[in-house]
Amino acid sequence: MKRLKWPILVLSGAIAALAQQPQQANPDSPVVKDFSRRVADYVKLHKTAVSEIHRLKPTNSPAAIAHYEHQLAQRIRAARRDVVQGNVFTPAIEEEFRRLIGIAMQGPDAARIRESLRSAAPVQFRAIRVNGDYPAGLPLESTPPSLLLNLPKLPPEVDFRVVGHDLALRDVDANLIVDLMANAIR
Amino acid sequence: MRRAILLLFAILASLVSAETPELRLPLKANSVRFAVIGDSGTGEPAQYETAAEMAAVHDRFPFEFAIMLGDNIYGGKSPADFKRKFEDPYKPLLDAGVKFFASLGNHDQTNERLYKPFNMDGKRYYNFKRGNAEFFALDSNYMDREQLDWLQSQLSGSRAAWKICYFHHPLYSDARAHGPDYDLRKLLEPVFQAHGVTVVFAGHEHVYERLQPRNGISYFVLGNSGQLRYHDLRPSAEMAEGFDTDRTFGLVEIAASQFYFQVISRTGETVDSGVLELTQ
Fold this sequence. Notes:
The complex is a heterodimer.
Chain A: H1 5-20, H2 30-53, H3 62-79, H4 91-106, H5 110-119, H6 145-150, E1 158-163, E2 166-171, E3 176-181
Antiparallel strand pairs in A: 1-2, 2-3
Helix pairs in contact in A: 2-3
Chain B: H1 2-15, E1 32-37, H2 45-60, E2 65-68, H3 79-87, H4 91-95, E3 99-102, E4 126-130, E5 133-137, H5 145-157, E6 162-166, H6 182-194, E7 199-202, E8 208-211, E9 218-222, E10 239-243, E11 248-255, E12 258-265, E13 270-277
Parallel strand pairs in B: 1-2, 2-3, 5-6, 6-7, 7-9
Antiparallel strand pairs in B: 1-11, 4-5, 8-9, 8-10, 11-12, 12-13
């Protein structure tokens, strides 16, 4: 019996460590695959818009940066004229995201994540909408890393942004809201 | 009209520097010299006065570059904002060839990475070397898996004696307004420790604070080069030095295994200084 003591301890330690790990999005699950496909479709559209106006290289001109952002957003907006909220965050994807966010927000890291959100200077602004700009001058609330690591990976063209209690999928270069999930962070 | 008044103010401020601080930096040959500013981009008179003090000190301590700890451009991001909140206040330094290396704060827009004078080369996070030091500018607004992997790989491949990380949100802070970012700390601190990071700079809190070294890492918070949150510090045992009654900027000189620092206020008062020794 004595011989079994160490393996049991090691195993129980490993189980405890696994329990501490946040449960990350499974990239092979059909819902996450659907999310990734929708994001990939969006990125394709983004790249087409970029190719029409040429990618901006670093410049001394803030006017050129603003112009590039505006032109890019305009083209994307025109190409997605009829888009509605839920174009990426479908009900099934939204449900999976709520589950993943819930794991982070209610798990052992919850207090730390909430502290992180508080220290990030929460944004109180309700008027963002799909296909609209992320408002100029409105601070970007940082996304707690533990929360971020739980969500599916994104290509560099887009990022997740916490806006108050909402979660936005944002086009980084165009500064445009691709989709929005209301009351995602509770 | 407002711009003309600010410009006039900048000129007057550069002519009438309140105090000439005694330099506590050794000015050794071949040392790495740089300045540190955080939460600077307000475009208000206090930013101009602090910048004028920096320019005055630059004559005697010719630092080659400045690192920016985020919130480089508050509020609007129009060309006029870039001029009023960055180009005009730091014009004497820019004209003298000082390069600014920015990191992004929560009040910055991600596309500031495309603004050449911030030397980010279009990247949210990046690194650069000077002498025996390597600098890692991080985007603490968005610490995703890609950035973490990049940081680990760059740090593990770095042979620099001094590995210096800087970003916006502090891992440690005794300021009341925000407090430390515990979630970021949990992720970054083990990486810093594992790869021999020696100094970390952050902003976000509109005060100056130097914390007691933790596991061989010295943490500085400097978020008052434009903004100020008066009397916001709530000193704890972790605080080595703090200053929350005026704006500041930092000066650093790295000479072999010594890291000399001096923090100077808008009015030219030295609020902190010292030397860190490389132990490894």
